[in-house]
């Protein structure tokens, strides 16, 4: 009989905690791997093994995957490990646990009885006596299970001797109870071993391994595993046997029992889910129309733990129960659950309903987009497309049934593994975690649905990296609004880390959605003391907004209220196994004030009835933090509070501040020469973190050492980053003396930190964490981080990615008094902050997506040091492990070149040698960062090529520890047989860095330039930190030249570079680094000095005055110890340098380093004694150096020649023209274009030349010699600002882009998709006018031009930027670009172009249309116009013809300063963005004409309007 018990929870009901008689699990598993859950053929590779517990612990194979044996375990599937495979999954337990495994093997490995010695079954072993655990089977068939620190191993000795390596099925269970340290091993229903271990968390290894031990890898298992079940509780012996027996019942083993009842069922509409029942072979589903029954079976023999009811009763509840079954019998019924399906409209749309864009693990391709047919009519979407963020065309015949779903996946197989859903795909491109546009178009190109999502209010936050999808709350909501979406929150039956509902009703679905809350803001942005703060929010709801409330909390200075409290420090440790406790004071209603928000034009509200609700917070005291929230309720009682539940920022906030005050006689204007960072926290938390009291100091190499235990608020640029976390930063010197501490700050999802450098420029990407250095280094010398900032800068100039850094003025608000004395108060002093190695670093430095590891002193494994996991890189740390374990002194050069980008490493290490960055050693795996470039040339294991990047570079520019030998250096130089074939590459880099960079005229001005940034601020920092009391922190014990003065520090660094001498801590005089580099470049035992080519001599051979179009130089002949026949290549370069005597010298510009070439030729294989540089690389009046070098056949380069310095003269043949836009990869021809005879996309190529000068330019006779072939015809005169086009096919061009454009003519040849050189020469002199190579050099070129059919557009063409550099190009605003027109515009440019005299709100032609709208709607600002008017138009929508209100208007698509919104209202009251665009005509001049219709036919009434808002 089916039990009628149930619990009802609103719309989506689910039950937990009801127990039945019979075998039942004492807890839900935290990880569960069942071979019968794998849908694959016999012998197929098992790359992914889904977690059937729905906890998200997906197991992934290494480079060698095990296979599926479909009848491997008594006729049931098993995963077969053949002695060389393993799988890894996130460690789900660390305290109490129970691990149960059903396996068989012909024998184990290893002759020792330690738990880590046998063939691994399930293991988190890590070398050493550490907090780890695991299970294995040794060579005598004994099962071993144990824990570490101290190492305790249970052996299956108790009872009769049994060899479990007999190739028969066995069930082994290992239990640990943390509170007592009790361990138990049960095998085949018998307790085989007990013992006592330590009581600490076993959390040292972040992953567990199946089929081997993870570190070091092996011994491997040779055998089959059918199931692994892991609980986060210690089951009793009886519970273990009961679960084993249920498992035995499934696999027809002796003593088997029926399975336990399925737990935690849930009904998501008609889709049912439940937790797997241990021992279940299959399931049955029963349905009833009432909770009391009767229940009728509607499905049986189900092997998955989910089912979609194909025939539910719509519009009323359906009730369900589930029963598990195996060969022994049936379980009791599950609890009863209720599911309800929403009603469907007759002619509803197809919508974008769910987006999963950033899962837990980048290597698991789990992204997808779900469409929902919100209609009673089936939707045929064959030929429809998803575009922008991804690209996908739906196959012909794709039909979504009424109320049905279709899922398009990045990898359909992964979606099948994770959710059991069949998906279309794969799609092209990928969804960005930073935000993306998604557009659904029908087969006619009309936009059906579009979403532009991001992370952070009003968009969901947990969808960005926490594993959740982003779900539309109700299909009738406006999907373009972020508050219409929520992060998926799984019901109890779906605990998976990858939380989503593909192919089913959204978990967050609500029949009555709460009001939309958008555009929450406050003014002033950073209010002064006692200034009222006006808070506004745009609210909307289809049922009407019944009320709105503002709740605010005042955080007075010195009374910081964190949302969470720190975990106590006990015996110098933090128990990181527990979460930080919530702070009751934060949510205490007594600490919040509630006021009504109004939209009636009173009490600060600007406009009545405009949907913007307003409330005013009274003015507050200087240095106060004002937190606030907005709650909106609709007329049916549904409410929402912003920020939303998954938003870690928990509230909005404003910081009340009157400005930085003077400090100890130093004016505020001086203090503000550096960017100001305000830091608010509790004084007790700050004091505990910095730990001037030794009792608060943490033990190194423990989890607490790197745990973000304390909460704070950061304010920068007026932006409040609330509820961030912080901790100390640093290794050996973290707690040295009572010195200034290094800190790390961690920002919340959706609210990454936007920094500015010391020039006031925004960082290219936001940072999710920042590191603040302490301004001294481990040699106990005060450096102000000058060496570190310079080091990072130089590495970046050398092409080695290194953290962006800047100095700042740091202020800590922990007390009520702003500044009680010099040492106590807000002024904290100088910090140097820099970005960290993570996903943002990849984007900031425009790197290909590859794995990143930040090496620390705390570990040597890859998993715990990994900072970024690339989607297509190995996910088991094997790239790092390969370097750590295999790049040894016995490897050959082929191995090094296979796994190391040796040229990059050589350049990196050359600067290490120059600045003496030596704080590492070959086996240390520390003080560096590893980036694995996804270059798999000559690799079969796809591990990528190593780049080493700098980390922990404080101990430089002076005596330091160690010898500068990292793992690469040791492999090349320290083996019994050194890898001499690699010497030329390494010593070439040493030589080049010494020749071009490590020179006094390069380094000295750079040191002076950076020192000047902090020089005004140093006196204030000195007052604060020199001689301060110990409880406040001081520089006591810190010495060195910097302790004397900044000038002394700079002089000391120059002395170290050029003179040498003696320093504290060194036992003998040190030669200068210049002299050291001179000796080093000669090689090992003069290997290079005796073999490299003779340094050539360069001389100028061009006309007097160095005209830039005829810069011709000559070189002496090639000479080499091996003879002149050894010539291989010659290379020429010219670089701008800083010279105050140059006519065009600009003292505001930064020091120009000769390393950065204005032009550098490729290595030229044919020797020529003369060379003429391209005519556009040097600018008149600026100073340059030219050089040449020679290479021999061994790969050795000579020194660069001594430079020839010159001031670039006039270029008499120069013309002020640029290539302003070109399209090298047009989109494919459309059907109509093919029908017109234009069937090749290359026919639509074009190149645009623009006159950026002030007078006419005659291009007659000028000709393209590279890339394309074309000569400008007579009378090709361009007026100032005018453009002309060279096109591949004029007829095709006109067909696509329209006529009337300034076409100069048709070229021959075509633009190469892979990139090539473009060369335009002058008519009579053949002097280069434009010369550059696109895509092949100069950085990362816009990728959209390769895939989206967009053009490349020159940035700021009027300034004639260097076209060789990718940074000076961007993708066009739209496909095809805007040939013959500017690709972007704004009001000011339009105003100038149209001779408009008034401002945006003026009306130059007095027609009632302000200039801003004339601009936006492309009307004539000098003659009267009329607003676009609506009209009735008969339209067929969803196969039904009716009259619709429509509006047609022309708009700018290239406007960078405004947004357009077409909105609809039934009553001129509530306006919503519900209209539908019915047509769009692109004029390819930066504008389109669009027609929009109302969402309903005219029988329902209504109004349309166009809203134009500033961007």
TrEMBL record:
NCBIfam families: choice_anch_X. Gene3D superfamilies: 2.60.120.200, Immunoglobulins (2.60.40.10), Lamin Tail domain (2.60.40.1260). Residues 338-455 form the LTD domain. PROSITE patterns: LTD (PS51841). Residues 1-26 form the signal peptide. Pfam families: CotH, LTD. The keyword Signal applies. InterPro entries: ConA-like_dom_sf, FN3_sf, Ig-like_fold, Lamin_tail_dom, Lamin_tail_dom_sf, Spore_coat_CotH_CotH2/3/7. It comes from the Bacteria. Keywords: Signal. This is Lamin tail domain-containing protein. Residues 1375-1410 are annotated as: Disordered.
């Amino acid at each position: 009989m089916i039990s009628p018990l149930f619990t009802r929870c609103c719309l989506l009901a689910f039950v937990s905690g009801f127990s039945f008689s019979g075998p039942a699990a004492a807890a839900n598993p935290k990880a569960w791997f069942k071979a019968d859950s794998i849908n694959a053929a016999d012998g197929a590779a098992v790359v992914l093994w889904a977690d059937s517990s729905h906890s998200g612990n997906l197991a992934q194979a290494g480079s060698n995957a095990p296979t599926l044996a479909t009848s491997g375990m008594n006729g049931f599937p098993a995963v077969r490990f053949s002695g060389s495979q393993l799988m890894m999954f996130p460690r789900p337990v660390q305290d109490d646990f129970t691990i149960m495994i059903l396996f068989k093997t012909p024998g184990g490995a290893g002759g020792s009885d330690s738990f880590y010695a046998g063939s691994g079954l399930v293991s988190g072993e890590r070398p050493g006596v550490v907090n780890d655990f695991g299970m294995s089977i040794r060579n005598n068939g004994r099962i071993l299970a144990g824990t570490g620190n101290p190492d305790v191993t249970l052996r299956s000795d108790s009872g009769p001797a049994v060899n479990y390596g007999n190739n028969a099925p066995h069930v082994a269970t290992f239990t640990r109870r943390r509170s007592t340290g009790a361990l138990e091993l049960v095998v085949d229903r018998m307790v085989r071993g007990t013992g006592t271990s330590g009581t600490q968390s076993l959390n040292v290894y972040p992953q567990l391994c199946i089929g081997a031990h993870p570190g070091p890898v092996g011994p491997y298992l040779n055998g089959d595993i059918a199931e692994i079940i892991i609980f986060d509780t210690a089951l009793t012996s009886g519970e273990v046997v009961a679960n084993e027996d249920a498992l035995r019942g499934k696999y027809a083993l002796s003593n088997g029992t029926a399975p336990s009842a399925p737990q935690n069922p849930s009904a998501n509409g008609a889709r049912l889910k439940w937790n797997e029942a241990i021992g279940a072979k299959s399931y049955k589903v029963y349905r009833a129309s009432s909770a009391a029954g009767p229940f009728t079976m509607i499905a049986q023999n189900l092997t998955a733990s989910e089912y979609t009811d194909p025939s539910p009763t719509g519009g009323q509840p359906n009730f369900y129960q589930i029963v598990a079954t195996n060969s022994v019998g049936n379980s009791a019924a599950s609890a009863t659950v209720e599911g309800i399906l929403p009603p469907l409209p007759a002619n509803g749309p197809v919508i974008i309903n769910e987006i999963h864009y950033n899962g837990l693990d980048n290597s698991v391709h789990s992204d997808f987009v779900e469409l929902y047919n919100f209609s009673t009519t089936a939707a045929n979407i064959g030929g429809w497309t998803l575009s922008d963020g991804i690209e996908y065309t739906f196959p012909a015949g794709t039909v979504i049934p009424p109320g049905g779903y279709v899922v398009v996946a990045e990898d359909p197989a992964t979606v099948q593994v994770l959710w059991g859903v069949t998906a279309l795909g794969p799609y092209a491109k990928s969804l960005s975690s930073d935000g993306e546009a998604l557009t659904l178009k029908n087969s006619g190109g009309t936009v059906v649905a579009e979403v532009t999502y991001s992370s952070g209010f009003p968009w969901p936050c947990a969808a960005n990296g926490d594993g959740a999808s982003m779900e539309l709350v109700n299909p009738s909501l406006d999907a373009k609004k972020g508050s219409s979406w929520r992060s998926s929150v799984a019901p109890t039956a779906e605990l998976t880390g990858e939380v989503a509902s593909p192919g089913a009703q959204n978990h967050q679905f609500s029949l009555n959605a709460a009001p939309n809350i958008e555009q929450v803001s406050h003014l002033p942005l950073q209010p002064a003391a006692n200034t009222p703060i006006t808070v506004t929010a745009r609210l909307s709801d289809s049922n009407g907004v019944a009320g709105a409330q503002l709740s605010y909390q005042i955080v007075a200075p010195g009374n910081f209220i964190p949302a969470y409290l720190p975990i106590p420090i006990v015996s110098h440790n933090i128990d990181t196994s527990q979460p930080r406790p919530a702070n009751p004071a934060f949510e205490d209603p007594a600490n919040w004030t509630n006021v009504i928000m109004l939209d009636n034009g009173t009490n600060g509200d600007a406009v009545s009835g405009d949907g913007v609700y307003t409330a005013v917070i009274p003015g507050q005291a200087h240095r106060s933090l004002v937190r606030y929230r907005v709650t909106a309720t609709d007329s049916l009682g549904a409410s929402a509070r912003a920020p939303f539940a998954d938003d870690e920022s928990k509230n909005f906030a404003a910081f009340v501040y009157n400005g930085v005050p003077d400090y100890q006689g130093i004016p505020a204007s001086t203090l503000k020469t550096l960017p100001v960072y305000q830091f608010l926290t509790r004084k007790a938390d700050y004091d505990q973190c910095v730990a001037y009291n030794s009792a608060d100091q943490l033990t190194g190499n423990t989890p607490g050492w790197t745990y973000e235990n304390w909460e704070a608020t950061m304010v920068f640029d007026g932006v409040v980053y609330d509820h961030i976390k912080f901790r100390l930063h640093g290794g050996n010197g973290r707690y040295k003396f009572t010195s200034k501490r290094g800190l790390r700050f961690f920002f919340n999802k959706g609210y990454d930190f936007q920094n500015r450098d010391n020039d006031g420029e925004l960082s290219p990407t936001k940072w999710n964490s920042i590191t603040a250095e302490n301004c001294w280094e481990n040699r106990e010398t005060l450096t102000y981080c000058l060496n570190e900032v310079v080091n990072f800068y130089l590495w970046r100039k050398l092409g080695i990615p290194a953290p962006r850094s800047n100095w700042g003025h740091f202020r800590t608000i922990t007390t009520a008094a702003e500044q009680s004395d010099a040492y106590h108060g807000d002024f904290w002093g100088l910090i140097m902050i820099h970005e960290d190695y993570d996903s943002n670093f990849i984007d900031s430095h425009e790197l290909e997506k590859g794995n990143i590891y930040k090496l620390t002193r705390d570990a040597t494994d890859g998993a715990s040091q990994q900072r970024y996991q690339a989607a297509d890189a190995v996910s088991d740390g094997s790239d790092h492990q390969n370097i750590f374990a295999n790049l040894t002194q016995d490897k050959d050069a082929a191995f090094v070149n296979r796994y190391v980008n040796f040229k990059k490493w050589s350049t990196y290490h050359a600067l290490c040698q120059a600045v003496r960055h030596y704080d590492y050693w070959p086996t240390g795996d520390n003080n560096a960062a590893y980036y694995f470039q996804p270059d798999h040339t000559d690799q079969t294991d796809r591990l990528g090529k190593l780049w080493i990047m700098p980390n922990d570079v404080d101990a430089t520019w002076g005596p330091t520890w160690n010898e500068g030998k990292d793992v690469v250096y040791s492999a090349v130089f320290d083996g019994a047989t050194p890898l001499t074939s690699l010497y030329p590459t390494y010593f070439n880099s040493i030589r080049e860095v010494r020749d071009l960079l490590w020179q006094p005229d390069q380094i000295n001005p750079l040191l002076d330039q950076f020192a000047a940034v902090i020089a005004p601020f140093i006196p204030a920092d000195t007052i604060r930190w020199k001689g301060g009391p110990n409880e406040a922190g001081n520089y006591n014990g810190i010495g060195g030249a910097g302790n004397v003065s900044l000038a002394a520090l700079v002089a000391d660094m120059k002395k170290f570079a050029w003179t040498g001498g003696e320093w504290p801590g060194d036992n003998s005089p040190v030669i200068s680094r210049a002299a050291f580099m001179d000796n080093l470049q000669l090689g090992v035992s003069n290997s290079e000095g005796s073999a490299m080519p003779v340094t050539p001599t360069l001389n100028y051979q061009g006309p007097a005055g160095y005209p830039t179009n005829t810069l011709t130089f000559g070189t002496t002949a090639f000479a080499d110890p091996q003879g002149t026949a050894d010539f291989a290549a010659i290379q020429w370069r010219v670089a701008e340098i800083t010279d105050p005597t140059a006519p065009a010298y600009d003292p505001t510009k930064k020091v120009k380093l000769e390393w950065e070439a204005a032009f550098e030729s490729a290595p030229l294989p044919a020797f020529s004694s003369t060379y003429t540089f391209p005519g556009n690389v040097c600018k008149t009046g600026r100073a340059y150096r030219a050089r040449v070098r020679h290479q021999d056949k061994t790969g050795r380069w000579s020194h660069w020649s001594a430079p020839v310095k010159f001031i670039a003269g006039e270029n008499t043949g120069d013309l002020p023209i640029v290539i302003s836009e070109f399209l090298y990869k047009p989109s494919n021809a459309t059907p109509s274009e093919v029908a017109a005879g234009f069937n090749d996309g290359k026919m639509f190529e074009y190149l645009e030349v623009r006159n950026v000068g002030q007078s006419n330019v005659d291009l007659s006779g000028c000709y393209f010699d590279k890339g394309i072939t074309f000569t400008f015809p007579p009378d090709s005169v361009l007026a100032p600002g005018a453009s002309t086009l060279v096109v591949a096919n004029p007829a095709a061009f006109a067909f696509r882009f329209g006529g009337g454009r300034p076409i100069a003519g048709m070229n021959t040849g075509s633009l190469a998709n892979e990139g090539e050189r473009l060369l335009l020469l002058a008519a009579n002199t053949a002097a280069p006018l434009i010369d550059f190579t696109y895509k092949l050099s100069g950085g990362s070129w816009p990728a959209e031009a390769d895939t989206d059919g967009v053009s490349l557009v020159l940035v700021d063409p009027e300034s004639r930027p260097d076209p060789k550099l990718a940074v000076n190009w961007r993708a066009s605003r739209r496909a095809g670009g805007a040939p013959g027109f500017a690709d972007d515009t704004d009001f000011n440019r339009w105003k100038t172009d149209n001779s408009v005299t008034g401002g945006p709100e003026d009306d130059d032609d007095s027609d009632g249309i302000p200039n801003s709208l004339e601009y936006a709607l492309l009307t004539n600002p000098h003659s009267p116009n009329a607003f676009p008017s609506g009209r009735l138009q008969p339209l067929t929508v969803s196969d039904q013809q009716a009259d619709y209100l429509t509006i047609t208007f022309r708009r700018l698509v290239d406007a960078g300063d405004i947004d357009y919104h077409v909105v609809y209202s039934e009553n001129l009251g509530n306006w919503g963005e519900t209209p539908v665009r019915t047509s769009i005509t692109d004029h390819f001049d930066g504008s389109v004409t669009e027609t929009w219709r109302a969402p309903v036919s005219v029988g329902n009434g209504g109004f349309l309007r166009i809203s134009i808002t500033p961007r």
